[in-house]
Design a protein that fits this description.
Layout: H1 2-22, E1 27-33, H2 37-46, E2 55-64, E3 68-75, E4 78-90, E5 93-102, H3 106-115, H4 119-136, E6 142-153, E7 156-165, H5 170-187, E8 197-204, E9 209-217, E10 231-235, E11 238-247, H6 253-266, E12 275-278, E13 292-298
C-alpha cells in the first residue's frame, strides 16, 4: 500500500510540475475550418489587431507555411503567445489548434484554467470564436471546383510583361499594368488570340512575395516591333492538376492551396508555379462571384 501511495505521489508531483512549470501553453482552442491549410494559414497571418475589440497589436514571430505559425498578441493588457497548428482533414477542411500562453502570468493562468470562470479564458475564447468565424465566412467570397484528373495544358505563344508583387496584391498589380501591354498590342495592330493568363515564375510564401508574367496570347511572328517593356515567348504544354475558381481574382491563390492538398493526397509531385487563365473581364462582369479563372498546378 505504501509503495502504491508513493507511486501516486510521484505521479502527482511530476504532473503538477509539468502542468505549472514545463508545458508551454495555458489554454487550448480547437476548431475546424472549411478551407485548405494554405487558406487558413494565410487568414491567420493577415488578421489585424484593429479588426477585434481589445486587441492592441499582433505580429508574427515564426511561420511555417502551411502547417503553423506563432504570433505575439496583446489582448487587453495581456502579453500572449499564440501558437497555431494546422492539419489536413480533407482537401477542403482543416483542423486548427491554438495553443495560448500568457507570457507574464503563466502559473496564475494555469490555476485559473483549472477552476474555470477565468477572464483569461473568456477573453481568448471570444477572440478565437471571432477569428474562426472570419475564416469560415471566406466561403461566401469564392467557389472552387476541383478535378482529380491530370489535364494537359496546350502550348501557346504570348506577349507578356514581367511583374512582382505580394501574393495578396497580384490582381491589383495586373490592373495597374494592363495598359502597358494592351496599349502596345493595340497601337501595333496585334490581335489577342485567347484569354489572358498569369504565369508564376517565383514565389515566397514565407514573405508573401511573388514574380510573374502577365501574358496575352498572340500569333507568333518575328515582325512585331521591339519594346522595352513588352516581350514575347512560347509557353510549352504541360500536364497539371486543375481547379476552376469563381470569385475576385485577388483571392484566386486559394485555388493554389486546394490543388496543393490534392497533390499531397494523390502523392503527386508538383511545381508550385501555377498558371491562371482569366475567362472573364472584371470591367464587363459586375458580379465578382461569377468571375472565372482556370487554375493549373504543373506536375514535375
Amino acid at each position: 500500500m505504501k509503495k502504491l501511495l508513493s507511486v501516486l505521489l510521484v505521479v502527482i508531483i511530476a504532473g503538477s510540475v509539468w502542468y505549472f512549470f514545463i508545458k508551454d501553453f495555458n489554454y487550448i482552442v480547437r476548431f475546424e475550418a472549411n478551407h485548405a491549410k494554405g487558406t487558413v494559414h494565410k487568414a491567420l497571418s493577415l488578421w489585424k489587431a484593429n479588426a477585434y475589440d481589445g486587441v492592441d497589436s499582433v505580429y508574427i514571430q515564426n511561420s511555417d507555411p502551411f502547417t503553423g505559425l506563432e504570433q505575439k498578441v496583446w489582448l487587453k493588457d495581456h502579453a500572449l503567445t499564440y501558437r497555431w497548428k494546422i492539419k489536413t482533414i480533407n482537401d477542403s477542411v482543416s483542423k486548427v489548434v491554438a495553443y495560448i500562453k500568457d507570457d507574464e502570468n503563466s502559473v496564475k493562468r494555469n490555476w485559473e484554467v483549472i477552476f474555470g470562470n477565468s477572464e483569461f479564458v473568456d477573453l481568448n475564447l471570444q477572440l478565437l470564436q471571432k477569428i474562426s468565424g472570419g475564416i469560415n465566412v471566406l466561403n461566401e467570397r469564392y467557389t472552387i471546383q476541383q478535378s482529380d484528373s491530370i489535364q494537359y495544358v496546350e502550348s501557346r505563344h504570348c506577349a507578356y510583361i514581367s511583374l512582382e508583387s505580394s501574393i495578396t496584391n497580384k490582381a491589383q498589380t495586373m490592373m495597374n499594368n494592363i495598359q502597358v501591354i494592351t496599349s502596345y498590342l493595340k497601337s501595333n495592330n496585334i490581335p489577342i488570340s485567347d484569354d489572358p493568363f498569369l504565369q508564376v515564375t517565383s514565389i515566397d510564401f514565407d514573405n508573401d512575395k511573388m514574380t510573374f508574367d502577365f501574358c496575352f496570347p498572340v500569333t507568333k511572328s518575328s515582325r512585331y516591333p521591339q519594346s522595352q517593356k513588352v516581350s514575347f515567348k512560347d509557353v510549352e504544354g504541360f500536364n497539371a492538376l486543375k481547379a476552376t475558381y469563381y470569385g475576385n481574382y485577388s483571392r484566386s491563390d486559394h485555388a493554389w492551396f486546394r490543388l496543393m492538398e490534392i497533390a499531397e493526397r494523390k502523392q503527386v509531385e508538383i511545381n508550385q508555379l501555377p498558371i491562371e487563365i482569366y475567362r472573364d473581364d472584371p470591367h464587363n462582369t459586375p458580379n465578382e462571384l461569377s468571375w472565372q479563372a482556370d487554375v493549373f498546378m504543373p506536375l514535375k
